[in-house]
Amino acid sequence: MKLLDQPQAPNPRRVNIFLAEKGIDVPRDVLNIPKKEHLSDEIKALNPMQRLPILVLDDGTALSESVAICRYFEELQPEPPLMGTTAIDKATIEMWQRHAEFDVLGPIASCFRHLHPAMAELEVPQVPAWGEANRERAMKGLAMLNDRLEQTTYLAGDSFSIADITALCAIDMMKLARIEMPSDFAALKRWYGDVSARPSAKAGLA
Amino acid sequence: MKLLDQPQAPNPRRVNIFLAEKGIDVPRDVLNIPKKEHLSDEIKALNPMQRLPILVLDDGTALSESVAICRYFEELQPEPPLMGTTAIDKATIEMWQRHAEFDVLGPIASCFRHLHPAMAELEVPQVPAWGEANRERAMKGLAMLNDRLEQTTYLAGDSFSIADITALCAIDMMKLARIEMPSDFAALKRWYGDVSARPSAKAGLA
């Protein structure tokens, strides 16, 4: 198999961290997004939405969508579990994964995509008013994570999970999106220090 | 357990269809969204984002996020499988579920939320330019589904799955979002006729 990758971008990075936590090594082809290498016809045949990452299996089957790729590896190699083992664990992790994705990563990415000059050619049309509206959505999402992390070690409870991976990649995108972390989110900062210090946080990066 | 519900809204409807396919009956409390019953402090304590549906377990644990709730029931009662059984099936279904959610339901919901006068008080700020931009995104997503359904019976392959549920709820929201189905999406129309005719499509509705 082969992973079509760009580990600096938040979605491919999620898969890279997930694989590092599992100790799984997969051959990579790293594509250049600013040079629009992901917008080729070859990529379109693998993922009609032309988004990375894409996992190409040995029989040619293409899996896109970062969480779907993670699910595949979770099923192939359950240890260490990053998506839960019992029904309630699996559901709780999926809930926090989705909160991190829809309420934090999505808003932060929308700030970047709709406000940053570097995205003018890739996000058409840029809607600056939508970018601005997402600052407040991002803050609301971050506040939710902070409240949660006042109660728990990791987002889904006592164990590190895919929900933490999504939230870490979101928060590391804030600089690019020109959003500052509020100084009073102490629990979120404690958690961020913990998850950033894991070796997996550097996975795929030079 | 108890499901805090509003089966007309697309996300709660996803859970209602999922439960009907499983043959699982759960007591419901139906909330009135136009009357903002979901914006109470009681709901905020259960889901900080104040979105429905919410599943409240007997011990008081609250699960939010429609797909997380579905995951819980899939684990409790695997038959009939709606989220896959093998690694590749689970990943393929998750991929198409996410395509249906991010590339179809999301854009259609954004048209509705940012353009419809009925949403002026619930979506603050409404950004009409973002609503308009989502018409094209919705069309691109629908075209992807149509292309896929020229090859397969259901979105993830030979079996009905949660991906079909998400896409059905998205397409049924098009009327509200004032988006017309292009007349040349024959495969999508064939599939829509099939999934709409399933008894589960009416689940939760009077």
Would you kindly provide a written description of the structure presented here, covering whatever features stand out?
- 2 copies of one chain form a homodimer.
- In chain A, helix 5 packs across helix 7 (186-196).
- The relative contact order of chain A is 0.15.
- Chain A folds into 2 domains: 2-76, Glutaredoxin (3-Layer(aba) Sandwich); 87-202, Up-down Bundle (Glutathione S-transferase Yfyf (Class Pi), Chain A, domain 2), CATH 1.20.1050.
- Helix content of chain A is 50%, strand content 6%.
- Chain A is an alpha+beta fold and 206 residues long.
- The two termini of chain A are 22 Å apart.
- Chain A has a 4-stranded mixed β-sheet, covered by helices on one side.
- Chain A contains 7 helices and 4 strands, in the order E-H-E-H-E-E-H-H-H-H-H.
- The model of chain A has no long low-confidence stretch (mean pLDDT 96).
- The A-B interface holds A 48-49, 57, 61, 63-65, 67-69, 71-72, 75-76, 86-88, 90-92, 94-95, 98-99, 103, 125, 127, 129-130, 133, 140, 144, 147 and B 48-49, 57, 61, 63-65, 67-69, 71-72, 75-76, 86-88, 90-92, 94-95, 98-99, 103, 125, 127, 129-130, 133, 140, 144, 147.
